[in-house]
């Protein structure tokens, strides 16, 4: 079976892998990890990708509008998921949120970070590199 015919489960609903998804990457300051993820995958032909941060000092702060836009939210650490739950309550409960368990120890476009992000992208969405 071709990958275009396969499905993933998002928010309890079966979604074809070739359907457009809005994917939001979240870290603390939107400076290194989530920004790397956005820049890495932003030109993917099947998905729109954005990034934001949870901290008051974030380059781009996560907003209600960003949460509403997203079909899938990929947070770098479990604590980011908890922060989103505290800040956005029921709105987050309606979304598929997955923690990638990527610690805050990488710089922007760090080769190891890129490798980890590409592995998660493949694991979650079933797509190869960028």
Automatic annotation (TrEMBL):
<dbReference type="InterPro" id="IPR023485">
    <property type="entry name" value="Ptyr_pPase"/>
</dbReference>
<dbReference type="InterPro" id="IPR016919">
    <property type="entry name" value="UCP029416_PTP"/>
</dbReference>
<feature type="domain" description="Phosphotyrosine protein phosphatase I">
    <location>
        <begin position="21"/>
        <end position="130"/>
    </location>
</feature>
<protein>
    <recommendedName>
        <fullName>Phosphotyrosine protein phosphatase I domain-containing protein</fullName>
    </recommendedName>
</protein>
<dbReference type="InterPro" id="IPR036196">
    <property type="entry name" value="Ptyr_pPase_sf"/>
</dbReference>
